[in-house]
């Protein structure tokens, strides 16, 4: 059931992005995560979504590195910490379907 809810949430968010209710801000972390996907079709589809709807955020900022390090100190993984740090600097909201990330980031 959880997978279904996560999938539904993904499509609701994607639909809002496609309808320009939300803007998808992407960071270098997204592309690093996509590289680890073994399924070639899934990798292609995600890269297509990122390039079609994603807006690149600022990168290389010392503030982002510092904030990510602070999140890591609170037991967030490196990728999750980077996502949150980039979002704080580049976006008004942080939307995710990752329940564990939401719980740990509070």
Describe this structure in a few short sentences.
The chain is mainly alpha-helical and 106 residues long. Helix content is 67%, strand content 6%. Helix 4 packs across helix 5.
Tag the structure with descriptive keywords.
two-stranded parallel sheet, 67% helix, 6 helices, globular, 6% strand, 106 residues, mainly alpha
Number of helical stretches of at least 4 residues = 6
The SSE string, one letter per element, is HEHHEHHH
End-to-end separation in angstroms reads 24 Å
Helix amount: 55-70%
C-alpha geometry: globular
Mean of pLDDT = 88
* Strand arrangement across the biggest beta sheet: 1-2
- What low-confidence regions span 5 or more consecutive residues with pLDDT below 50? none
| Largest β sheet strand count, sense and barrel closure | 2 strands, parallel
Number of strands: 2
Determine Rg (CA atoms, Å).
Answer: 14 Å
Q: What class would the helix/strand composition place it in?
A: mainly alpha
Strand percent estimate: 5-15%
Oligomeric category: single chain
Description:
The chain contains 6 helices and 2 strands; from the N terminus they run αβααβααα. Helix 2 (28-35) runs antiparallel to helix 3 (40-53) and helix 4 (62-73) crosses helix 5. Helix content is 67%, strand content 6%. It is globular, with a radius of gyration of 14 Å. The model has no long low-confidence stretch (mean pLDDT 88). With 106 residues, the protein is mainly α. The protein starts with a helix and ends with a helix.
